[in-house]
Amino acid sequence: MSDKESKNSNPKSAAEQQEKLGLSRRGFLGASAITGAAVAATALGGTVMTRESWAAAVSESKTKIHVGPGELDDYYGFWSGGHQGEVRVVGVPSMRELMRIPVFNVDSATGWGLTNESKHIMGESAKFQNGDCHHPHISMTDGKYDGKYLFINDKANSRVARIRLDIMKCDKMITVPNVQAIHGLRLQKVPYTKYVFANAEFVIPHPNDGSTFDLQDKNSYTMFNAIDAETMEMAFQVIVDGNLDNTDADYTGKYAAATCYNSEKAYDIGGMMRNERDWVVVFNIQRIEAAIKAGKFTTLGDSKTPVVDGREGSLLTRYIPVPKNPHGCNTSSDGKYFIANGKLSPTVSMIEIAKLDDLFDDKLKDPRDTIAAEPELGLGPLHTTFDGRGNAYTTLFIDSQVVKWNMAEAVRAYKGEKVNYIKQKLDVHYNPGHIHASLCETSEADGKWLIALSKFSKDRFLPTGPLHPENDQLIDISGDEMKLVHDGPTFAEPHDCTMARRDQIKTRKIWDRNDPFFAPTVERAKKDGINLEADNKVIREGNKVRVYMTSMAPAFGLTEFNVNQGDEVTVTITNIDQIEDVSHGFVMVNHGASMEISPQQTSSITFIADKPGLHWYYCSWFCHALHMEMVGRMMVKPA
Ligand code: RUQ
Ligand code: CUA
Ligand code: CA
Predict the structure, then answer these.
(1) Ligand 1 pocket test, candidate residues 245, 327, 394, 441, most atoms within 8 A of CB
(2) pLDDT tens column, 483-526
(3) Whose CA is nearest to atom 3 of ligand 1?
(4) How far is CA 543 from CA 247, 313, 559, 568, 590, in A?
(5) Which NCBIfam families match (predicted)?
(6) Across the strands, what pairs with 454?
(7) Which residues of 595-611 are buried (b: 16+ CB within 10 A; e: fewer)?
(8) Whose CA is nearest to atom 1 of ligand 2?
(9) pTM score, whole prediction
């Protein structure tokens, strides 16, 4: 059946329509795979969904994920915005987008990247207007979410950012020194998130001053990075062999592990695939801390960060060979295994964490003796997640499937027992990367919802030109069988997401006047003798003009101010509204200035008054019946 036929047919029910659509898509997929036209359309193997299971999935989705008007979702989801640079807050299971948190991008609505407060947080790196975030993770205490912070990497400009979950704003950002491309990011789970672990992916020469470009040189390497989660300053860096992809930490607080796909230190695809096995490198956190305490570290360039050498032969690390160009690194929620996902091997490698003490104490001679099992799952395993009932779920990129398998049974099979550890293979659409089950990164994995983040959406949505959305699929895993219940289109490119129970996140409804988010601006005002909650004043200092005003629906405290052409103007506004949800905005027309000022917040923005004449400013967030009238005029005297 062609797409056209399915459109022209006149189905009796939505379920029937879906069912027909499903079948037609499968037909389309098969045809394109056969002609080889679609490089990624390989969802032919495994369990094909039947007519019945499609219909069941559709009726299931109506009851299970329906969150009616005024009803609240059970989970907060945090989606990375990929190379778009933001974090998105999504309600699960409705998959409704609740909010966007700009981080590495510039945001016109809130003024992130434009306001003085955001530039202060971004520091030096505010000059960059792009980012590429992949891995959002929530801080933990005793292996459970404490709801304080969410951390996220920026691969594009080698940064790590922190979001305060009480206000859902980025409050800290750091550029990791002497490395390129922060990719894998995970948090210490136990006893609490003291460290943010961040992998720098690419090997570079040290010093990277152009004296050599040879990746095989012994001074060419990358580093594993630990950032103090509270201060957001560098804690330490560990030099490694090969490169670093993804990482995770264990539930004892002793170890972190990371996958390496470029053990070859090659610069091209052929070279990076040369070895049949790359490895997982395991970091002994306590030994690293002890080495630094004992002063056994160096520093690089201008950076004061302690750097230790964790290359082969070091007491601080162990290298466990695994096949081949492994990608995801996932700690099982029962705390037993680090799981490395084989990518170019159809297997995942289960590293038994309980054996790592012996490996570090040299009681185990062969690092491969830590492998508890290496189950074969299908083509292109990328990431694995857990339901807290002993099952793991792995994405198969090439097979376009999620495979559910049992960990204990995989271990028994590895020992030679005849047992089928594969429980189910479910087609997803199409080519999934990350996968995330509710609370799977904590000891409270609850086995309710699974998100498969599919890299291709092809025909699942109304077409949007050559650039297609990604497709995040919601799968119900509460029963014995995985059931697909929702398709969610997303913009470039979520990579990864995380979910917390709604009771685990406590947000503020209006700002605290003492919030550190805008403390530097409050400090500046104090020097100018300004009472931000009451004063409406213009302060001039040479060609620098600071305009202070309040806002209260539907008026700015100042409806006009005068400056001279060429002045550098800083407008600081304090929203003295006390009422939840009454946010104001400030936009200076034709000056590239825009910002949010939510209740009890102070925001400021600086621009040059380069054009003489009258220039209107207005409130950009609809705040009152007289919102359109919430305006003012900047009068600029010609130079
Ligand atoms: S990576 S699709 Cu950037 Cu998390 Cu695996
Ligand atoms: Cu204030 Cu609209
Ligand atoms: Ca390799």
Answers:
(1) 327
(2) 999 999 999 899 999 999 999 999 999 999 999 999 999 999 99
(3) 134
(4) 51, 61, 21, 6, 20
(5) nitrous_NosZ_RR (TIGR04244), TAT_signal_seq (TIGR01409)
(6) 432, 471
(7) bbbbbbbbbbbbbebee
(8) 584
(9) 0.91
